[in-house]
């Protein structure tokens, strides 16, 4: 009897040790708000200045999104991560690739693209957000063009360019990746560029940007501070912040991880986008559904990333796949709601009782469902036997 009590006491001690070792991520996931209903947001980057075929793609997308409505009657919402300019190839060529000249989204040749965006915004199916003045850091591109004929050709092309065709490391706006590993930009240059892009956004959309998403998810504290200064309330993240491109050109130098609802030091609210659905790469609609079900178990919104290239390279198949995925999501979760990222950020920040759960049992269940993502915690819980009481907690919650 004594021995059994002793073993049990030791087991409790081991469990306490495991919980203590993971106290910080466990507590963060307890503090993270739990949503009362499934929420789905389609997040699509790279729209704006660029190929003129976007106008048709955007109109077809808007029509498709309007056919899918949640139980409140609201159509599906897709964010447009907007890029405000592409190179003016003729002028850059005339300057021998020594000066950058932009073709902006405000230019008359993009009238049809802008009109398609505005009509979708008006209809409530598009929510624009700032992706960047351009999908690169212009001085880095000019420097790279000196040694790289492909970059030079891209920069001087006559037709509005598709930024997807650039080497991946050069698509990062907030570092100088003309040589690898990348170098950080001067704070003053970042401040100026962020103010200019906010002004450019306002010129097109009539209001300052409120949500920002860094190109290729490479950014830093200085960028966030400049965005906050420009009026940004919410920053879309993949749950971690890479601040450089390493010697192999990959995003690296991760200096922060974040959960939805956490606040950036400069003030904006972080949101997490971590479900990926790129139909043109062969990913089936099932992916969207699985992502939604998993995020719903965790009490989280499902932010689904699907880039512009899907709807330009394989428009018919991608549109059909998106609509199938959305329809399947509604069928599987009849309580599903569509929201914009700004509405989500505000609901989370203000702990809006219409959206945020306060009852203990659903909060415990969502917390338990979040724990497996903590590196090494799952294994520690299994080895120590802590997984048993946690499973019990999940069942009874
Ligand atoms: Zn992008």
Quick summary:
The chain is α/β, with parallel strands linked by helices and 397 residues long. It has 16 helices and 13 strands.
Q: Would you kindly provide a written description of the structure presented here, covering whatever features stand out?
A:
- Helices cover 45% and strands 15% of the residues.
- It has two domains: 34-357, Glycoside hydrolase/deacetylase (TIM Barrel); 359-397, no CATH class.
- It is α/β, with parallel strands linked by helices and 397 residues long.
- The chain binds zinc ion (ZN).
CATH topology of the largest domain, anyone? TIM Barrel
**Name of the CATH architecture of the largest domain:** Alpha-Beta Barrel
Tertiary shape: globular
CATH superfamily of the largest domain: Glycoside hydrolase/deacetylase
Q: Summarize the main sheet.
A: 6 strands, parallel
Count of distinct structural domains: 2
Bound molecules: zinc ion
CATH hierarchy, class of the largest domain: Alpha Beta
Termini separation (Å)? 32 Å
- Beta-strand percent range: 15-25%
What's the Cα radius of gyration? Answer: 23 Å
Low-confidence stretches at least 5 residues in length (pLDDT < 50)? none
- Secondary-structure element order, as H and E? HHEHEEHEHEHHHEHEEEEEHEHHEHHHH
Query: Overall pLDDT, averaged?
Result: 96
Number of strand segments:
13
**Number of separate helices:** 16
């Amino acid at each position: 009897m004594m021995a059994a009590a002793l073993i049990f006491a030791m087991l409790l001690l081991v469990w306490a040790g495991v919980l203590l070792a993971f106290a910080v991520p466990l507590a963060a996931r307890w503090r993270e708000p739990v949503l009362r209903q499934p929420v789905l947001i389609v997040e699509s980057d790279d729209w704006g200045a660029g190929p003129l075929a976007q106008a048709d793609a955007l109109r077809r997308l808007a029509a498709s999104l309007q056919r899918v409505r949640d139980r409140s009657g609201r159509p599906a919402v897709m964010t447009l991560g907007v890029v405000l300019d592409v190179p003016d190839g003729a002028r850059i060529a005339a300057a021998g690739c020594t000066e950058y000249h932009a073709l902006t989204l405000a230019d008359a040749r993009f009238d049809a693209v802008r009109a398609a965006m505005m009509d979708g915004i008006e209809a409530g199916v598009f929510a624009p957000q700032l992706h960047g003045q351009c999908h690169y850091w212009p001085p880095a591109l000019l420097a790279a063009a000196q040694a790289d004929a492909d970059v030079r050709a891209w920069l001087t092309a006559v037709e509005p360019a598709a930024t997807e065709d650039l080497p991946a490391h050069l698509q990062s706006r907030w570092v100088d990746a003309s040589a690898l590993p990348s170098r950080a930009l001067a704070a003053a240059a970042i401040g100026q560029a962020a103010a200019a892009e906010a002004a450019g956004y306002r010129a097109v959309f009539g209001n300052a940007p409120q949500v920002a998403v860094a190109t290729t998810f490479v950014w830093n504290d200085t960028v966030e501070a400049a965005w906050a200064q420009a009026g940004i309330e919410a920053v879309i993240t993949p749950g971690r912040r890479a601040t450089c491109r390493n010697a192999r050109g990959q995003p690296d130098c991760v200096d922060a991880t974040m959960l939805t609802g956490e606040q950036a030091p400069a003030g904006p609210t972080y949101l997490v986008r971590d479900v990926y659905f790129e139909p043109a790469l062969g990913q089936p609609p099932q992916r969207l559904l699985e992502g939604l079900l998993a995020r719903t178990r965790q009490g989280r919104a499902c932010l689904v990333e699907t880039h512009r290239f899907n709807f330009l390279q394989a428009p018919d198949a991608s549109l059909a796949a998106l609509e199938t995925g959305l329809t399947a999501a509604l069928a599987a979760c009849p309580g599903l709601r569509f929201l914009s990222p700004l509405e989500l950020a505000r609901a989370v920040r203000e702990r809006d009782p219409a959206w945020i759960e306060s009852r203990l049992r659903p909060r415990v269940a969502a917390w338990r469902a979040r724990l497996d993502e903590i590196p090494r915690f799952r294994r520690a819980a299994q080895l120590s036997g802590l997984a048993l009481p946690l499973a019990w907690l999940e069942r009874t919650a």
